[in-house]
Amino acid sequence: MSTEIPQSTSQPGMAERAIDATADVSRTIGEVAGGLRAGVDRLTSAVEESRKPGGALATVAAVTREAPLASLFVAFLFGMAVARRR
Question: N or C terminus of the chain: which is more exposed, having fewer CB within 10 Å?
Answer without folding.
Answer: N
